[in-house]
Amino acid sequence: MLNHHHPHDPQASANTMNGDTARATSPFEPQRQKAAMVLLAVTLVWGATFIWMKQALNALEVEIDAFGSFPVVALLVALRFLIAMVLVLVFFPKAGAGLSSSAVWRGGGVLGGLMLVGFVSQMVALNDINPSTSAFLTSLYVVMTAVLTMRMSEHPPRRALYWGVLMATVGAGFIQGPPHVSWGWGEIVTVVCALFFALHIIFTQKLTLEVDPLMLTLTSFIVVGFCSLALALVWSGEEFVSLIVEVLNREGVLMPVFLLGLGGSFFCLVALNTYQRHMHPVQAAIIYAFEPVWATIFALRLGLVDWSWWILFGGLVLLLGNIFVEITSQSDDDSHPDEPTP
Question: Is residue 76 within 8 Å of residue 257, measured between CB atoms?
């Protein structure tokens, strides 16, 4: 599915956030519709990561009691991204050439740093708030992406995307029931998490138009992997080696962690960095809002959550929002065939 022979020139053509058009050097340039389908597949796999992480954490209850939840989760995040780093080097060895480029490291540092803060803030806050509140507040990244894009771009998103933003936020936010928000530490940290996820979407759009996406992916994985490892080291202190040994030896941990690295990090972020640049970042954010829908479906199948009419309500509103945006995008393409689609 992914084109690993995809040289990307900074002057190459794609639709940029500010509406400018640059010329692609590669003969293979996915259409916006294909990019939308790939990003939808990304949300499907992201939904499954909820199950894999839960399986790993359930298997590590003894270690969480002994070392604390933060260093255990930080170590799992580190393992996940270090596995993905190795997979990039194995399947896309040319990406390693970017390790000598300061521009690639700067871009990877930005994306990796944003992902790291987003992951850490989300896992810290989950201890203090219920899942429905977390889903609602995290879904605010769709709104934040629209607002930040409007502030950072000379050409704001077209009007139809604002309706899509509203429907995606309501659908994703209410799929686990109406949130009961009382502003405490956990809620504030979750909003910070949403902000960093929004910034990650926007900077992915910008940086993958300037730097080779696969080189950028590799360096961002290195940043997240080793920084997460450092966080686990700082939090566990002298028990760091014991933490690693016990986690790796615990039955039921290695398979879900490998799947997190293979699916959640390697496949999803290679696909995201390769294809998101062919879409407007706000439209990509609306598609990404499908993640809690898939996560809820998987959880229902495994008996981890109970059926509620809010699941149907949230899923339908999200689906209608995406259909509306796609239909209006196609009409824009038909009426302005020579103009880049935002």
Answer: yes
Amino acid at 290: F
DSSP string of 58-120, one letter each residue: HHTHHHHHHH-HHHHHHHHHHHHHHHHHHHHHHH-GGGGGGGG-HHHHHHHHHHHHHHHHHHH
- pLDDT value, residue 279: 84
pLDDT at residue 312 tops 70 = yes
How far apart CA 32 and CA 38 sit, in angstroms, is: 10
Tokens of 72: 């255990």
**What six digits make up the tokens of 74?**
């930080």
pLDDT digits (tens, 9 = 90+) for 5-45: 333 333 333 343 333 333 333 433 447 788 889 999 998 99
For residue 341, give the 3-state DSSP assignment: coil
**Is residue 171 within 8 Å of residue 311, measured between CB atoms?**
no
Measured CA to CA, the distance from residue 145 to residue 153 in angstroms comes to 12
189 or 15, higher pLDDT: 189
Tokens standing for 69?
Answer: 């939840």
Taken in order 197, 202, 206, 212, is the CA torsion positive or negative?
A: positive
Joined tokens for residue 301: 């199948």
Question: Which tens digit of pLDDT belongs to each residue from 156-186?
Answer: 666 667 777 777 777 766 766 776 656 778 7
For the chain, what are the domain ranges? 32-147+182-277
Residue 21 backbone dihedrals phi, psi, to 5 degrees: -120, 130
